[in-house]
Specification:
106 residues, two-stranded antiparallel sheet, 71% helix, elongated, Metal-sensitive transcriptional regulator, Metal_Tscrpt_repr_sf, Metal_Tscrpt_repr
């Protein structure tokens, strides 16, 4: 059975990603580092660290998350999107454009 799409009530076939173990390991490592950076930000705030220093650390976290997003987007385009286009599912282009627009708002 498909999964309900948020906001539309439509159901879509469950989709999964096809990341290699190397990519999964890289992404997990990056996310673990980001998690540590988030904990550092919390400590900085708790210790009344100068605002500019906290904001600098937050910018580093955002940059690291953007890097994870770019890696995921590249993999998505090279595998999932290509596979679906080859299968005649051209609506994946509209889905991709929505995702890219959402990423560009950040």
């Amino acid at each position: 059975m498909g999964k309900a799409d948020e906001g539309t009530g439509e159901t879509h076939e469950e989709k999964i990603s096809h990341h290699s173990n190397g990519v999964k390991s890289d992404l997990t490592s990056r996310l673990n580092q980001i998690e540590g950076q988030i904990q550092d930000v919390r400590r900085l705030i708790e210790n009344n660290t100068y605002c500019d220093d906290v904001l600098t650390e937050i910018a580093a976290v955002q940059s690291a998350l953007n890097s994870v997003s770019r890696i995921l987007l590249e993999g998505h385009m090279k595998s999932c999107v290509v596979e679906r286009i080859c299968a005649g599912e051209d609506e994946v282009i509209d889905e991709l454009m929505i995702t890219v627009r959402r990423m560009m708002k950040k």
